[in-house]
Amino acid sequence: MIIANPIYDVVFKRLMENERVAKFFIGTLLDETIESVKLSPQEFTRTDEKKPLSLFRLDFIATIKTKEGELKKILIEIQKTRKKIDLMRFRNYLGEQYKKEDNVDNQLMVLPITSIYILGFNLPEIESACIKVAREYKDLINKTTLKTKSEFIEQLTHDSYIVQVGRITDRYQTRLDKLLSIFEQANFVDNTAITKQYKHPTDDEEVKTITDILHHAGVEPDERKEIEEEREFWRTYYAMYGDAEKEYIEKIEKIEKRMERKEKQMERKEKKMERKEKKMERKEKQMDKEMTKTKKELEKAIKEMEKAKKELEDLKSRPDIQIQEEMEKKKEEQTKKDPENKNK
What we know:
elongated
């Protein structure tokens, strides 16, 4: 079957406007049961000289049925990019989401955020086509992982899911495999990469719905024209700004490398400082030990001096004859201990 390439924004938007497809897409990535989704497209516009072209990110308010059977609402933010340079756009969008309240059933509230990023480039450090970046609540006092969740914390932090379309293979076994197969960048009809041959079976109802939508987008003239206009926009954009963008990315990478080197230098300095501190601690302990020993020796010497002083005062207070007798007595005791002295 011929289908349109969903990596194009206009195609992806058309796909996600179908509630069944959106529930399948979000539920499969999150591995959750999605009860309902409400689409709220957030668009920004790039304009060329001929015609405005609208590119976008998609926000959904999704009602999830948890494994405990409870229903909870979360904000699903889906962003798609072709180039690494869009990192700042991702961060800006995320910052905007954290600043605003969401309208749910005519009530303003702050919803937990889950981000889904579809990347048109490969992350060199990670080979997997689909990654979940999950949070854990860790009790640092007792060194345990907490099972309970806090609504306050949930609104301040979020989980993320990353899809690298360039790393998707022809594997077709699990529910996730079937979803990712739609985005596989292979089997293109021509070098425009607008349409491709979908070679997997479409016996799954959700996959059939998706491929039907993509088939219509790929062969219907008006819809295909929109894809061609988007492709032309990006071709023109890269022709005009590609070198500048590449140079900008290289500058960013150089700055990142400099930052890494500085961080490593700081780490080395910190380790050196730690060694010095430990050495100082050892010296201080040794000095404390020596001072304690010296103090004890001093206290012992003082006690001996006080004892000698007392004996001296005691001797002074006795009559001379008594002193003479005691000295004779000590001399005799000494002679008994050392007979050789007697002969002398």
